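Weekly sync, protein design subgroup
Attendees: M.S., D.O., the rotation student, P.L. (late)

Item 1: inverse folding check
M.S. brought a backbone from last month's batch and wanted to see whether the design step gives back something sensible before we order anything. D.O. pointed out we never logged the input encoding, so this time it goes straight into the notes. Structure tokens as presented (335 positions):
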């Protein structure tokens, strides 16, 4: 008996067919139950179907961003303003996100919202959307060709790095007078947030004549990895003044290692995102500061821009959501 062998091409085609079928069934269930209103929506050639390419459903910040999008999309659908929406998670896998984008383009969605896994690796998605005539809104992180996207909604990650760098300088003697040894925990190398936050630190704390950056390693946005790296650093470097972590997951991992080593009183730690446990840690006097990245503003804003684009309404090509430094002095207003 010959074994049936299913190749990659057939598997990809089957995946696309199943996704199209799932979306079609969802459209029928979403519109058919509303009677005449559903019929009118079906006849409307502007009936909007939004596809969302999520970066991750496990990263704490991405969970908040996804939740904000969920709420905004559910409100649009329940009010009959869109026909349907479909969300898929790349699980921080570039190839998976590329495949998911191909599937959504094949479905003919009205507009795509993407939180890209990698700046260069996911750039082809922007090109493919442009070729297919499907608008694409980039949210949170950027692709290397973000200027070719229909719109971008997010924050200036260089600013986040600069806020961290300036905070550390202030804690180590003030701008121009800072002295000490600094360590840097970077995110996934190649992600635009990693690239830009790194640049922000280079624009600030790296330029302090009295500051030595001992080492910079990627914690891959992960708490456990950052904790492991920091434990090694604590053994390797007897004199550490500060740690700059490019997200709160890594900041909290570094904090745990430093507390366990009994060295928190000597080391300043600052990170980015202002997730809940980071804010609580600032309030408790453990984490020195976190830089708020507004997940709700980015998530809701990306859906709003995508909806306007799909309906042919006026929209902003670049929507900047500002960062805010949170310390023990103002943390209560963000909890």
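Designed sequence read out in the meeting:
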């Amino acid at each position: 008996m010959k074994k049936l062998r299913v190749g990659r091409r057939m598997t990809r085609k089957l995946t696309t067919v199943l996704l199209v079928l799932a979306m079609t069934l969802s459209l029928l269930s979403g519109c058919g139950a509303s009677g005449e209103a559903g019929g009118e929506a079906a006849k409307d050639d502007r009936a909007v179907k939004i596809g969302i390419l999520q970066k991750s459903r496990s990263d704490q910040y991405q969970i908040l961003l996804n939740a904000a999008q969920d709420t905004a999309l559910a409100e649009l659908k329940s009010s009959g303003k869109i026909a349907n929406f479909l969300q898929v998670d790349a699980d921080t896998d570039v190839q998976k996100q590329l495949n998911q984008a191909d599937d959504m383009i094949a479905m003919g969605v009205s507009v795509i919202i993407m939180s890209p896994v990698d700046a260069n690796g996911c750039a082809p998605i922007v090109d493919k959307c442009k070729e297919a005539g499907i608008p694409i809104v980039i949210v949170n992180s950027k692709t290397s060709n973000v200027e070719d996207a229909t719109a971008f909604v997010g924050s200036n990650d260089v600013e986040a790095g600069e806020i961290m760098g300036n905070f550390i300088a202030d804690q180590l003697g003030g701008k121009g007078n800072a002295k000490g040894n600094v360590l840097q925990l970077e995110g996934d190398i190649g992600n635009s947030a990693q690239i830009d936050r790194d640049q922000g630190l280079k624009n600030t704390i790296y330029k302090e004549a009295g500051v030595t950056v001992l080492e910079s390693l990627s914690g891959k946005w992960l708490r456990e990895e950052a904790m492991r790296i920091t434990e090694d650093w604590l053994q390797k470097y007897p004199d550490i003044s500060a740690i700059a972590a490019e997200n709160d997951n890594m900041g909290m991992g570094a904090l745990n290692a430093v507390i366990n080593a009994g060295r928190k009183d000597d080391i300043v730690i600052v990170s980015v995102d202002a997730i809940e446990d980071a804010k609580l840690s600032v309030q408790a006097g453990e984490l020195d500061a976190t830089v708020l990245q507004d997940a709700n503003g980015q998530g809701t804003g990306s859906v709003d821009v995508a909806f306007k684009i799909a309906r042919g309404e006026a929209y902003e090509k670049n929507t900047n959501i500002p960062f805010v430094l949170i310390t023990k002095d103002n943390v209560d207003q963000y909890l």
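Discussion: The chain has a mean pLDDT of 89. The two ends are 65 Å apart (CA to CA).
Action: P.L. to compare against the previous round before Friday.
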